[in-house]
Design a protein that fits this description.
The protein is an all-alpha fold. The chain has seven helices and no strands. Helix 4 runs antiparallel to helix 5 and helix 6 runs antiparallel to helix 7. The longest helix has 29 residues. The mean pLDDT is about 90.
Amino acid sequence: LVFEAKGNVWAQILMILFSILYGVISFRFRYWGEMITYLGMTLPMAVWSTVTWLKNPSKENGSEVAIQTLARRHLALLAVSSTAAVTAVFYCILKSLDTPNLFFSTVSVITSFLAAALTMLRSSYYAMGYAANDVVLIVLWVMASMENPAYIPVAVNFAIFLLNDLYGFVSWKKREVLQTA
């Protein structure tokens, strides 16, 4: 995660590995939304982000990605695709799969989609998307831990991710100021 906060492409490569591992953990508890999201969306978007980040190095530091300011069309597309399409489609899928904690699982898909999309777009707001997702995932895994304490480390993991994502936002905002100066 420190790589992500610094805008280093290794973050995306590590996200690919994390997506696979997290998909397996989510499968074990039947958090289908998490499994589908990380294997079917976050993983491919991390691959796409790797390519995007490699093609857009920062002028100040070639090992970091250049930060992009989002246009209104980006924001409109994200709002429509995430709030309307992703919510409707994934709610139906997760409900048909009898996903535990359906509401939070659906919210997790939405926040995860926004975070992954903002990462691919090289926006400093990627970190706020992941921070929001971390909060939802802490809730989901605390609920899972109440059924099986073996999932406590997963909840703790996302609490650590939350702290790092908040640091990432601050770090990217500082870099963004330097980049535009």
